[in-house]
Amino acid sequence: MYIDRNTIGGHNLPFQDYFADNIWSKGQNEAGKLGLSALQMVTVAFRMLTYGITGDLIDEYIRIGEIAAIKSIKRFVKAIIHIFGSEYLRSPNTNNIVRLLAKSEQRGTLGMLGSIDCMH
Length: 120
What we know:
Protein name: Nuclease HARBI1
Largest sheet: none
Organism: Lithospermum erythrorhizon
Pfam families: Plant_tran (PF04827)
Number of strands: 0
Number of helices: 5
InterPro entries: Harbinger_derived_prot
């Protein structure tokens, strides 16, 4: 039995919820052109963080300059630190260390506290 779940609407709803009301982050610039959209700025941040690419490689796909790309990722990172910093970007306490060392012993990954790759 086929159930039509309106997948196109499912694609459009998040966009409308998060970007459509105020899609442009800034009004018009001095040249009368619209500023960057929130979608462009978030996409730039995700691509730079995910692929480890520099701001000058973003221009072709996202249509955003290097300086704007760097500003976007800095703004994104500041927001993440502001929201999650106190919980996730702190030094581990004694309970955390005991728990992490027990997990590393079970998995055979001794020394994981010194490895960034194993911190998750």
